[in-house]
């Protein structure tokens, strides 16, 4: 071989793999004589100005005239990572070696929750991410990549189906892969599709897996169990093998809901009755609103059993409360507000959870998922509008005296309304299948939200939309702090607490205006309802972001500012 001809006698012959691609193969004569000073060189030769390694370990030439190719006698096995000859010709070349000031170190504090640590690393460039800490032991051959990716996708599916935001789902998937030693993993979350790609190195082929989320269900008990599993996987003092993780995940899937169906029906009635008290109803209105909501809940369950889409389930669930309100109007009872009955039924149907998740995804840069969630909210809202409008139009034809001016009558009964707000939050928590240990905290959070709203809107005379945004911000702040104290998801502490703030009254009077051909008043009231809903979602997200100001920053070194906090912008 060529290396044997030009190298020293004691040098080990090089293999064909180490030979340069520009050296003629054995048995081929050279074409012509090479002039002095012109020798074939490798493109990885040491450029002019860099001295040779005294030990000769690098094998590079000390000046620019000597060749480093296999055909040169001075070559003793050059490194492929030596800068090329044309390196200094670049106008703005980066430093060839580690600069004198060093490379900024990124240290993630172990005391911070895994959500913060993983979210911080996801926002970093891939080249700046620290090496993964293999928390869970693997085989000598390394982690089983397909099984780790499959486990990660199954965990992400449960979180996304339970209503978790796309950013938190990506952080959870990233935490699982890093705990099992898979570096250079990139999760991707959309509304119905989860995918993750792992590339061991730049020269290896990537491994990609995906999973489709076809069914969604509201069960915050299951969501909390998944978060506990992730917390154990990412913890250094807990050993969770792949087999143990699969077993716990299967157990989470098999677990029954904590509340039976009849309890959920009663909770739906209690939510509607409590909402009717918030808008001025009394005992009779409470009972009628509760009965109407329970009938709507059973009718929706029957439609679901027949396989009808959720749009028609919302249409069916909105009709009984509206029918009870119209029937109460036809009785001509005095000192009774039928509008409170219909409003209470709407409180039990408005998709506040999906709205908050959709706006949160949009604010955090996941625009595809946010657009899909908001489109789903729009369809649900149209279904509610269709069911209520059908009954209201029928009631107007029957001569029901539905008074749109009733919305200007404000009834202040602070004690009863605070208790009603807490009852509404409690019923909402049961409907969301929350753990019993979180029900008390979220109930208090809902009561605080209503107190803040009442103090600003009723006592202070501030705009209801602005008051709603401030109250929702406090809900998000307290919910985020509660979740970090318990190392779990923030949804169980937030979603039910925004129930008293939902725009049920504005939605009803907007629909009533449309049914009575007063489009200006109807559309004005509906726009107020939309603004209130957006204020709730933005306030919750803003409160969650503000809560991080009070937490230890993962990734800060020596009091430095937070690194890689920008999600989508490059400035």
Task: Give the topology.
Blueprint: H1 2-6, H2 114-122, H3 145-161, H4 166-179, E1 185-189, E2 193-198, E3 207-212, H5 220-234, H6 242-254, H7 261-278, H8 283-305, H9 310-330, H10 338-347, H11 352-363, H12 367-397, H13 414-431, H14 436-459, H15 464-486, H16 491-494, H17 504-515, H18 519-547
Antiparallel strand pairs: 1-2, 2-3
Give a nutshell description of this structure.
The chain is built from 18 helices and three strands.
Would you mind describing this structure in some detail?
- This protein starts with a helix and ends in a 24-residue tail after the last helix.
- By secondary structure, it is mostly helical.
- The protein has helices at residues 2-6, 114-122, 145-161, 166-179, 220-234, 242-254, 261-278, 283-305, 310-330, 338-347, 352-363, 367-397, 414-431, 436-459, 464-486, 491-494, 504-515, 519-547; strands at residues 185-189, 193-198, 207-212.
- The protein has 18 helices and 3 strands.
- The chain is elongated, with a radius of gyration of 33 Å.
- It has a 3-stranded antiparallel β-sheet with strand order 1-2-3, covered by helices on one side.
- Helix 7 packs antiparallel against helix 13 (414-431).
């Amino acid at each position: 071989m060529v290396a044997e001809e030009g190298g020293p006698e004691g040098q080990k012959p090089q293999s064909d793999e180490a030979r340069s691609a520009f050296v003629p193969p054995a048995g081929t004569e050279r074409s012509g004589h090479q002039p002095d000073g012109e020798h074939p060189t490798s493109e990885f030769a040491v450029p002019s100005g860099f001295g040779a390694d005294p030990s000769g370990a690098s094998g590079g030439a000390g000046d620019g005239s000597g060749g480093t190719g296999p055909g040169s006698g001075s070559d003793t096995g050059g490194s492929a990572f030596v800068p090329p000859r044309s390196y200094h010709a670049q106008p703005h070349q980066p430093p060839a070696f580690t600069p004198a000031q060093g490379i900024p170190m990124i240290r993630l504090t172990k005391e911070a929750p895994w959500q913060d640590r993983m979210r911080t690393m996801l926002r970093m460039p891939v080249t700046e991410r620290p090496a993964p800490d293999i928390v869970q032991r693997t085989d000598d051959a390394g982690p089983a990549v397909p099984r780790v990716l499959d486990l990660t996708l199954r965990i992400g599916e449960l979180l996304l189906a339970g209503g978790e935001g796309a950013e938190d789902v990506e952080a959870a998937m990233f935490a699982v892969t890093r705990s099992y030693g898979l570096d250079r993993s990139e999760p991707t979350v959309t509304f119905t599709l989860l995918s993750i790609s792992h590339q061991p190195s730049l020269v290896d082929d990537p491994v990609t897996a995906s999973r489709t989320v076809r069914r969604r269900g509201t069960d915050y008990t299951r969501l909390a169990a998944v978060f506990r599993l992730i917390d154990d996987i990412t913890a250094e003092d807990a050993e969770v093998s792949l087999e143990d993780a699969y077993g716990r995940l299967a157990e989470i899937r098999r677990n029954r809901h904590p509340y039976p169906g009849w309890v959920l029906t009663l909770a739906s009635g209690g939510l509607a009755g409590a909402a009717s008290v918030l808008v001025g109803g009394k005992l009779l209105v409470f009972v009628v609103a509760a009965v109407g909501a329970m009938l709507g809940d059973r009718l929706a369950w029957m439609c679901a059993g027949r396989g009808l889409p959720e749009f028609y389930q919302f249409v069916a669930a909105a009709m009984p409360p509206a029918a009870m309100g119209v029937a109460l109007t036809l009785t001509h009872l005095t000192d009774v507000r039928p509008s409170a009955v219909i409003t209470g039924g709407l409180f039990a149907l408005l998709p506040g959870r999906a709205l908050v998740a959709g706006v949160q995804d949009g604010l955090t840069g996941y625009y595809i998922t946010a657009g899909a969630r908001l489109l789903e909210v729009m369809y649900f809202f149209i279904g509610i509008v269709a069911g209520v409008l059908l009954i209201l139009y029928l009631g107007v034809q029957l001569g029901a005296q539905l008074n749109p001016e009733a919305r200007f009558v404000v009834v202040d009964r602070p004690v009863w309304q605070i208790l009603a707000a807490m009852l509404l939050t409690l019923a909402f928590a049961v409907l969301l299948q929350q753990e019993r240990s979180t029900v008390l905290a979220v109930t208090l959070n809902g009561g605080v939200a209503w107190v803040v709203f009442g103090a600003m809107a009723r006592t202070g005379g501030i705009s209801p939309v602005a008051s709603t945004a401030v109250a929702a911000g406090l809900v998000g702040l307290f919910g985020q702090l509660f979740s970090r104290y318990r190392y779990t998801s923030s949804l169980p502490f937030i979603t039910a607490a925004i129930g008293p703030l939902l725009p049920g009254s504005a939605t009803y009077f907007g629909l009533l205006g449309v049914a009575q051909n007063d489009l200006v008043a109807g559309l004005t009231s509906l726009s107020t309802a939309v603004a209130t809903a957006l204020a709730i979602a933005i306030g919750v997200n803003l409160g969650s972001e503000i809560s991080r100001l009070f937490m230890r920053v993962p990734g800060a070194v020596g009091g430095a500012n937070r690194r890689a906090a920008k999600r989508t912008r490059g400035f």
